[in-house]
Amino acid sequence: MFNFSYYTPTQVVFGRDAEAHTGALVKAQGCKKVLIHYGGGSVVRSGLLGRIKASLDKEGVTYIELGGVVPNPRLSLVYQGIELCKKEGVDFILAVGGGSVIDSSKAIAYGLAEDADVWELYDRARQAKACLPVGVVLTIAAAGSEMSNSSVITKDEGGVKRGYNNDICRPRFAIMNPELTATLPPYQTASGCVDILMHTMERYFTPNGTMDLTDSLAEGLMRTVMSSAKILRDDPKNYNARAEVMWASSLSHNGLTGCGTDGGDFATHGLEHEMGGMFDVAHGAGLAAIWGSWARYVLESCTPRFARFARKVMGIADGGTEREAALQGIAAMEEFFRSIEMPTNMKELGIAPSEEELRTMAHMCSAAAGGKKGSAKVLEERDMLEIYRMALGE
Ligand code: NZQ
Ligand code: ZN
Fold first, then answer.
1. Which ligand minimizes its atom distance to the CA of 96?
2. In ligand 1, which atom is closest to the CA atom of 140?
3. Which of 202, 85, 204, 222 is closest to 150 using CA atoms?
4. Which of 40, 78, 117, 190 shows its CA 20 to 30 Å from the CA of 377?
5. pLDDT of residue 319
6. Residue 214 · residue 260 · CB < 8 Å
7. What strands, in cross-sheet order, belong to the sheet with 33-38?
């Protein structure tokens, strides 16, 4: 077990009609002017944006708006947001949406706090010293950005997708009404559930230092997300299942399921970020498409963890060798992905990278990680290329 620091400064306001508290929560921040940042229009169509504005109006909070965030949010809109906010004197960013909107908001908040190019953070050229405050009204259970220290931005030229982690960007508050997620297309609900699972799985698959309490929390979370995802496949309006995955989204990526470990593996995320940058795929679906290949590739270096996962999470019966259980557990997770119509390889994901594109992704993935990535097995560029090849699904 490793020493750890667990920092979760985000106030969570959870449940039906929670968004009615937005105005009061923003006002309590003592800011002068707010940017309401949102995506491609789902919050306009659902009427949520109107309710948020009414709540701000009621509290006398002044605001401006900027929509247009796309999945795999772009740096160009971040720059546009920074300029707009400078001109308007904005000192608080309210993200109304999912991971993409929240991450774009965090990037704007970093960009406003310091007089330097914000991309330098994502490009590992410097560390942030400051960040404006961000608040969240969450509309999709997935990325966990509503409580995480992370944001992921894609540079338009070359499709370079990069994450930057720093505790100073953790949102001040997160408003979570599970009912708001009932309008999600089934593909986004399922993709979100995979991302939630993966944030805990990335932390779970490590041979270095574990803690029984953390493992038990992680295993409970994974089982709950899988059973809730199946309920939502058949009954998308089920409030309790929506609530389970929404809360799991936050707990899976706020650090709780990594306490006492070495920080986890996160190679699957690194591999997916290159696929998202190059092919603009939904993040969770991309993770599902690569995970099985990653798991089989690293299995020998971390067999006891895969065997425990198989028995405690996937319900594989005792008996047989650890390796046999581990392989059955991987197959069972892929079967779960298929059951919620998620892909288990790139062909099913709908992409067919050439050998040259695979090499480019492996090279960029390795470079983004400073050469090596992973804990279950430390991967180098040649390992990443091999996993991509295994995941083609041809
Ligand atoms: O843009 P709109 O019209 O709102 O539509 C969105 C978008 O098309 C739609 N949507 C969201 N809420 C909805 C809804 N449609 C109907 N009803 C609703 N209530 O869903 C689509 C996906 O939205 P997006 O925000 O992209 O989803 P998600 O939360 O999965 O975020 C994905 C992004 O987060 C990054 C990913 O890489 C990706 O760029 N991640 C961020 C992390 C973090 N900051 O901690 C960690 C993750 O590992 C991840 O990398
Ligand atoms: Zn993720």
1. 1
2. 12
3. 202
4. 190
5. 87
6. yes
7. 11-14, 173-176, 134-138, 92-97, 33-38, 62-66
Q: Whose CA is nearest to atom 42 of ligand 1?
A: 143
13 close to 176: Cβ distance less than 8 angstroms? yes
For ligand 1, atom 34, the nearest C-alpha belongs to: 99
**Pairing, β 134-138 against β 11-14:** unpaired
Chain CA centroid to CA 354, Å: 27
Ligand number nearest CA of 178 is 1
Q: Give the per-residue pLDDT at 209.
A: 81
What is the C-alpha separation between 265 and 198, in angstroms, rounded?
11
What tokens does 257 get?
């399921």
Q: Which atom of ligand 1 is nearest to the CA of 101?
A: 25
3-state secondary structure at position 246 = helix
- Our mutation pick for probing the ligand 1 site, out of 38, 51, 161, 283, counting the most ligand atoms within 8 A of Cβ, is 283
pLDDT at 394: 77
The tens digit of pLDDT for each residue in 149-179 reads: 999 999 999 889 999 999 999 999 999 999 9
Where do runs of H (alpha helix) occur along 124-259? 186-204, 212-234, 239-253
Ligand 1 contacts (CB < 6 A) are 39-43, 71-72, 97-101, 103, 139-140, 142-145, 148, 150-152, 180-181, 183-184, 188, 192, 195, 253, 269, 276, 283
Residue nearest to atom 40 of ligand 1 (CA): 143
Ligand 1 atom nearest the C-alpha of 102 is 44
Using alpha carbons only, give the angle 146, 261, 101 rounded to the nearest 5 degrees: 15
Look-up of token digits 């059973």: 227
Q: Residues near 304 by Cβ (< 8 Å), separated by ≥ 6?
A: 207, 322
- Give the global pTM: 0.97
**Cα gap 279→350, rounded to integer Å:** 10
The gap between the terminal CA atoms of the chain, to the nearest Å, is 41
pLDDT for the residue 75: 98
CA distances from residue 225 to 206, 221, 231 in whole angstroms, order as listed: 21, 6, 10
- The closest of 73, 145, 140 to 104, measured between CA atoms, is 73
Distance CA 300, CA 323 (A): 8
